[in-house]
Amino acid sequence: MLGPTSHSYFSQRLRLHYVDWGNVEKPSMLLVHGGRDHCRNWDWVAEHYRKDYHVIAPDLRGHGDSQWMIGGAYNQIDYVYDIAQLIHQKKMEDVVIMGHSLGGAISLLYTALNPHKVKKLIAIEGMGPPPKMIEERINIPIQKRLEAWFKDLRQSSARQVKRYPSIEEAFQRMKEENPHLSTEQARHLTIHGSNQNEDGTYSWKFDNYVRNFSPIGLPFDQTGELYQNITCPTLLVRGEESWASDPEKDGRVARFRCDVESTSFKNAGHWVHHDQLEPFVERVNQFLMD
Asked: Exposed/middle/buried for 89, CB within 10 Å: 0-12, 13-18, 19+?
């Protein structure tokens, strides 16, 4: 596989990383990864679209080869602003955006705030926790939510970065995390998702603080309201073996006023684009051609 070129851009004084698959004269496609992931997890998808699109895949702040922020308050709206800056600086118009998990949520919110910029949107399990779980969180008093967040931050400050004696052991951990991955996929994700430490051990690239979700930010109910601003055709994707609930069955599809489709894949968990790559690409192709 002939890989992409590596680049940097700045957002809110952070140096952020992205990869570019070339063909700048083609229509723009932006691929946004999920939490504790990195831009190179899109390589197999990018390989399918690099001839027909100018494909760009960023590393979110605190992930991959992007800088970690000072402090530990990673907030979704900051991720959205970073993506907005990348699209602005690259002068991307009529962009096709594909996002996974946290990246899907970021893509949905960016599109809701900038509907004129996005031609089509694909969100893989990007609508967050099921409605019942969200309701439980909303009903927790704000004082208790803040206290829990403070506790989480203190625990993160004391948490030691996991060090694997060899890249082979990191690879085995990757395989455990998603049993659907092939050996080739797991090794590729491990190589691009880890750094070798000075003592020869290996650690994942992401900042441990990204595990914490700030209780201060855009409320869940207001986020749902913003989805009404999305005007482009939207495809919602989920794996039937995932924890994510079906947006059609739980009623979240009703939040959209645009042309929205929802599809599920058998024998797939949270990483549908890894677990069922060929069927996933086939479905996305159909969506893009409609």
From this structure: exposed
Tokens linked to 241: 């073996």
In the three-class reduction of DSSP (H, G, I as helix; E, B as strand; rest coil), residue 179 is classed as: coil
Q: Which domain holds residue 62?
A: 5-138+212-289
| Pair 61, 201: CB distance under 8 Å | no
* Contact of 47 with 1, CB cutoff 8 Å: yes
pLDDT in tens, 157-180: 999 999 999 999 999 999 999 999
Which 3 state secondary structure label does DSSP give 105?
A: helix
- What are the phi and psi torsion angles at 6 (to 5°)? -105, 135
Distance CA 236, CA 233 (A): 10
Helix (H, G, I), strand (E, B) or coil at 95: strand
Number of structural domains in the chain:
1
Model confidence at 290: pLDDT above 70: yes
Residue 70 belongs to some domain of the structure: yes
Q: What is the pLDDT of residues 126-139, one digit of tens each?
A: 998 888 888 888 88
∠ CA 158-178-52 to the nearest 5 degrees?
110
Cα–Cα dist 234/288, whole Å: 10
